[in-house]
Amino acid sequence: MRALSSLGRHEGISMQYRKLGSTGMYVSEITYGNWITHGSQVDSDSAKSCVRAALDSGITTFDTADSYAFGRAESVLGKSLKGVKRESYELITKIYWPTGEGKNDRGLSRKHIFESAHASLNRLQTDHLDVLICHRYDHETPLEETLAAFDDLIRQGKAHYIGVSEWNATEIASALAIQDAKGYTRFVTNQAQYSALYRVIEKEVVPLSEKEGIGQIVFSPLCQGVLTGKYLPGKKPPVNSRANDKKSLVGGAGFISGWLREDVLTAVQKLKPIASDLGITMAQLALAWVLNNSNVSSAIMGATTAKQVKENAKGSGIKLSVDVVSEMNKILEKLAETDPKKNQSPNPRA
């Protein structure tokens, strides 16, 4: 590998902010997300310390969903943000996955959208959402019904912006066409899985998004922790790692297992000298790679401790040179998933 020492070190970078798509609202480059943590992996006190650490690190954007821990994640986040000036942070939640046993307790029907949105507002202890997202595409509900309901929530002031999660380019384009024809508020963000090892959105979704003013808020930028380098080739996963979590229905061993191949883990270890040369952690390097894509508005990171939050927040503001990006791509791109047919996340609740 060529020497990278001439490319400079990155120390003391503060949180940076980007516009969400073509809107006038800024989001922090790092979003704090509480999928599989709040209401599940960590108690309320730990969750509150993580949220406070996020705020202290300059993170203003918080992501959750009605289905995370069956609503408990929203409740914990709402309590953790209590007392914080509402105008000082951006709150994102999502609707689609089941929130109960009833036939209508899921999907994107008008009934479920309104019921779920109101329940989310109550759990989050707020009167509005900054961004409300369709957590997946609903093939059982007319698209116009979904779009009309979201537009009504916008007009009622219960949401400021709307978006989608893991929709493919055709689905997004179809929705935008209806929104334009009906005069509805347009989608301005797509929440998609994206990392140096999972690049599915680059071929079709990103080009469409750039054309239509949609910004990506990406999840799993560390590829479930694989890009942190903690999983070593030929070694058993760390005892307390996600790879050993066989109890979680989502986000556990089943989700990460496909990436724990020897060829992937060996390649990831080759990133260590790059991170070391730049004076950053491998996690910060992975976050910086994602943020190098100008269509990415923010990268979601999860954490179970305040220390993790503070360290990962430093992934903001790192400008990677063309040489560094090229070197990383040379190491990883042949192993990366790029098939648009796999635009849907392998984990149904992410």
Structure write-up:
With 350 residues, the protein is α/β, with parallel strands linked by helices. The chain has a single domain (15-225, 286-319), classed as NADP-dependent oxidoreductase domain (TIM Barrel), CATH 3.20.20.100. Helices cover 34% and strands 14% of the residues. It is built from twelve helices and ten strands. The protein has an eight-stranded parallel barrel, surrounded by six helices. A hairpin with a 6-residue loop joins strand 1 and strand 2 (26-28). Helix 1 packs across helix 2 (72-80), helix 1 packs parallel to helix 11 (306-313) and helix 2 (72-80) runs parallel beside helix 3. The longest helix is centred in the middle third of the chain and has 15 residues, at 110-124. The protein is globular. The two termini are 35 Å apart. Residues 1-8 have low confidence and may be disordered.
In terms of topology, how is this protein built?
Layout: E1 17-19, E2 26-28, E3 30-33, H1 44-56, E4 61-63, H2 72-80, E5 90-95, H3 110-124, E6 129-134, H4 143-155, E7 159-165, H5 169-182, E8 187-193, H6 205-212, E9 215-219, H7 253-256, H8 262-269, H9 272-278, H10 282-291, E10 296-301, H11 306-313, H12 322-332
Parallel strand pairs: 3-4, 3-10, 4-5, 5-6, 6-7, 7-8, 8-9, 9-10
Antiparallel strand pairs: 1-2
